[in-house]
Design the sequence.
């Protein structure tokens, strides 16, 4: 009996995989929305990650050179060295830069004489995000300049940075994992939902019912096919991110990373089976799956750091399984940490079991009818 069970499950799984691979439109329905979101995130990160700024140095003295080097090394600007004030003004007018930082001609001399020396900053405050970056970053660069003077500085400043994390994560890189979780969710919903809905749309559901196999075997095969598609896609994205330097878990954290992918893939696949059996039409399954995946992505805090989002969004996110998958992946991949891993795995495991139960119940009820 066990051999017959595995043989039947394998046959159903193989059939669904073959049918799926012959339907490129279904694959596009999973991948294209995620690629579009990644493109938007990449463009947004490039636009706001570092503010474009023109630097005009009108003083060739050593202190002016040192100040310019500190501004270059601040790592918060996309600097363009302008040869003159008129060139910088033209760049500001054409919106090539958001601000102009000018080191005046007498900067080094006034520093040597112990006199106040100003740095001129002209900001186009068209956007509060850009403007606040400049307002914070220029004083920080000046502070670093004073620290670099050592004992000769008229203002004694000591700076020491203590990071909570071992590494810095770029803004675009930080958005990769929520997008990967959304891809798993979308893939499971679409592949599982279409697989189940196709049986009714093509009128093969009764043929499955009349086959000499148990209904649980049929459902297991369909869930397994959707799971293989979803997990395989997630694993491909993870490995691609590893090659590109975006997602690089280390050591034992590969295990927790893969486990989270498995649980999210199982959850979404079983939920897709339940959705497909309920709607019994492929077109509405695809439409609802895409919209549901995007809404869950945003409600789980996918576009930012959830801890800094409004309290009402945090309250909603606490009931969305994707929140825990996203958190577990961030801890494992970015920070080599198992913080709250037990809670994340428990929530995802329970969610996957509930989704499998819904899929089984929905398939059994609709096949019986």
Sequence:
């Amino acid at each position: 009996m066990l051999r017959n069970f595995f043989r039947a499950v394998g046959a159903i799984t193989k059939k669904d995989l073959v049918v799926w691979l012959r339907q490129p439109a279904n694959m596009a329905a999973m991948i294209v929305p995620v690629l579009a979101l990644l493109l938007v995130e990449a463009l947004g990160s490039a636009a706001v990650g570092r503010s474009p700024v023109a630097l005009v140095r009108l003083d060739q003295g050593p202190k002016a050179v040192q100040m310019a080097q500190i501004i270059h090394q601040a790592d918060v600007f996309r600097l363009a060295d302008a040869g003159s004030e008129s060139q910088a003004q033209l760049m500001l007018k054409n919106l090539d830069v958001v601000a102009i930082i000018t080191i005046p001609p007498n900067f080094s001399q006034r520093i040597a004489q112990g006199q106040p020396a100003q740095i001129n900053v002209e900001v186009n405050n068209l956007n509060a995000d850009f403007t606040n970056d400049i307002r914070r970053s220029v004083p920080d660069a000046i502070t670093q300049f004073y620290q670099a003077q050592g004992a000769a500085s008229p203002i004694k400043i000591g700076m020491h940075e203590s990071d909570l994390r071992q590494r810095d994560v770029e803004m675009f890189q930080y958005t990769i994992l929520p997008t990967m979780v959304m891809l798993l969710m979308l893939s499971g919903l679409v592949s599982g939902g279409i697989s189940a809905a196709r049986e009714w749309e093509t009128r093969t559901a009764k043929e499955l019912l009349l086959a000499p196999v148990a209904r649980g075997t049929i459902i297991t095969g369909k869930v397994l096919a959707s799971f293989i598609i979803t997990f395989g896609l997630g694993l491909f994205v993870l490995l691609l991110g590893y090659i590109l330097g975006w997602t690089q878990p280390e050591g034992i954290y590969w295990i927790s990373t893969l486990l989270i992918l498995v649980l999210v893939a199982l959850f979404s696949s079983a939920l897709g089976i339940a959705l497909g059996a309920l709607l019994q039409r492929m077109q509405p399954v695809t439409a609802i799956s895409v919209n549901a995946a995007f809404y869950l992505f945003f409600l789980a805090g996918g576009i930012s750091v959830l801890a800094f989002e409004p309290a009402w969004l945090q309250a909603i996110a606490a009931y969305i399984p994707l929140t825990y998958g996203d958190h577990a992946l961030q801890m494992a991949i970015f920070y080599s940490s198992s913080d709250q891993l037990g809670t994340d795995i428990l929530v995802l495991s329970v969610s996957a079991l509930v989704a499998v139960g819904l899929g089984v119940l929905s398939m059994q009820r609709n096949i019986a009818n």
Remarks:
- The two ends are 27 Å apart (CA to CA).
- The chain has two domains: 2-44+169-368, 51-152.
- The chain is about 70% helix and 5% strand.
